[in-house]
Amino acid sequence: MDKYSTKMEAIKISIQGNISIIQENIEKALNRAGREGEKVELIAVTKTVDVDRINEAIGTGISDIGENKVQELEKKYDIIGDKVNYHMIGHLQTNKVKNIIGKTKLVHSLDRISLAKELDKRSRSNDIVTDVLIQVNVAEEESKFGLEVDKVLYFIEEILDFKNIKIRGLMTIAPYTTDTMLLRNVFRTLFNLKENIINRNYNNLSMDYLSMGMTNDYELAIEEGSNIVRIGSAIFGKRNY
């Protein structure tokens, strides 16, 4: 076996082992939360990850990948094709919407009216409906995008009549901290917001997804109700920027 083949085999074993550990941790967190048997969707965050390693993850059963930047999503979509579902999880500029329409399973980062209008317009032009999550900045961090919690209901009511986007749930990015009480409060707040929205019985809207939890906090997020986790470094190792 040559050096390249040896290296790729090592990467495959490492990625497969990492995914197995994560899946075990997901099951344990579900059990702790009394959610045995429920499904948590694992999105492999592939920011800066090369295609060979992504394909190794797909070969171990990963069916969904998340990208932060439109140009990376486009590049990987062109190379990898429809072997995997693509999620736009980063901030989405309005002028880049045309580049991803029809390519995503879910846009996680809807956070303003101008973006909703553009997504709706481009989706209508392509005769599709684009599924979206509303990004909520629960902790109100200046460094993060997203709506404040008390603005979400008003935002939903402004875009409910858009026919070519469908709200499927909520997303948040929690603060990077070891303060578990703070993290639980962030995740619990988003869960409670989801329940409030469900109780209002809006038309053309569903709260199927609660996308919260990353490498450092996904188990806590699951314990507080998450059913989508977005994990990068715990699968692929520390990123090289």
Averaging pLDDT over every residue, what do you get?
Answer: 94
Number of domains: 1
Q: What's the total number of strands? A: 8
Number of helices: 9
Strand content: 15-25%
What's the overall geometry? Answer: globular
Poorly predicted segments: none
CATH topology: TIM Barrel
- What topology, given as strand order, has the largest sheet? 7-6-5-4-3-2-1-8
**Helical coverage, percent range:** 40-55%
| CATH hierarchy, class | Alpha Beta
Any idea what the CATH superfamily is called? Answer: Alanine racemase
Radius of gyration, in angstroms, nearest whole number: 18 Å
Instruction: Give the termini distance in whole angstroms.
Output: 30 Å
| Largest sheet descriptor | 8 strands, parallel
- CATH architectural label: Alpha-Beta Barrel
Regarding quaternary structure, what we see is single chain
Structural class: alpha/beta
Query: From N to C, what is the helix and strand string?
Result: HEHEHEHEHEHEHEHEH
Pfam families: Ala_racemase_N
Domain Alanine racemase N-terminal: 21-238
Modified residues (N6-(pyridoxal phosphate)lysine): 47
Cofactor: pyridoxal 5'-phosphate
Descriptive report:
With 241 residues, the protein is an alpha/beta fold. The chain has one domain: Alanine racemase (TIM Barrel, Alpha-Beta Barrel), CATH 3.20.20.10. Helices cover 44% and strands 17% of the residues. It has nine helices and eight strands. It has helices at 3-32, 51-59, 70-80, 97-100, 113-125, 152-159, 180-199, 218-223, 233-236, and strands at 41-45, 64-67, 85-88, 106-110, 130-135, 165-171, 205-211, 228-231. It has an eight-stranded parallel β-sheet with strand order 7-6-5-4-3-2-1-8. Helix 3 links the parallel strand 2 (64-67) and strand 3 (85-88). Helix 1 crosses helix 2. The chain is globular, with a radius of gyration of 18 Å. Pyridoxal 5'-phosphate (PLP)-binding protein, which is involved in PLP homeostasis. The modification N6-(pyridoxal phosphate)lysine is found at residue 47. InterPro entries: Ala_racemase_N, PLP-binding_barrel, PyrdxlP_homeostasis. One of its GO terms (molecular function) is pyridoxal phosphate binding. Belongs to the pyridoxal phosphate-binding protein YggS/PROSC family.
